[in-house]
Amino acid sequence: MNIVTIREIFVDEWVAAEVTKTDKSDVPVAGEVIIHSSEKRQVYQKVKTYLTQHPTARIFIFFTGDPIPENVEVMLALHEPHSGALGAWGSPFGSGQSTGAGL
Q1: In whole angstroms, how far apart are CA 18 and each of 13, 34, 45, 53, 89?
Q2: What would the pLDDT profile of 16-57 be if each residue is shown by its tens digit?
Q3: Where are the domains of the chain?
Q4: Where are the alpha helices (DSSP H) in the chain?
Q5: Per-residue model confidence (pLDDT) at position 50
Q6: Rounded Cα distance, 64 and 98, in Å
Q7: How many other CB atoms are there within 10 angstroms of residue 79's CB atom?
Q8: What is the pTM of this model?
């Protein structure tokens, strides 16, 4: 099933799907729904069980609703894997050094 269709059918739910098709950038565009629920924990538990039976399965877990509710502000920090650095802003934690203004 197309990911867009899955998002339309399972509104405001967590969905786990086994990936059946990706685009040129390796982004999932289609999959078979394994489980859907409003409870994220339930979805992750089912995926854990599913992977014991299908260890080579590629699973895409996503939320179909608005990831950021209205009236909520979000701060984004970029993490460079294996370097311990947090992008151009530096880290307000850890080394005590910060290269970002206002942190």
Answers
A1: 16, 7, 15, 13, 36
A2: 999 999 999 999 999 999 999 999 999 999 999 999 999 999
A3: 3-67, 73-103
A4: 3-9, 40-53
A5: 97
A6: 36
A7: 11
A8: 0.66
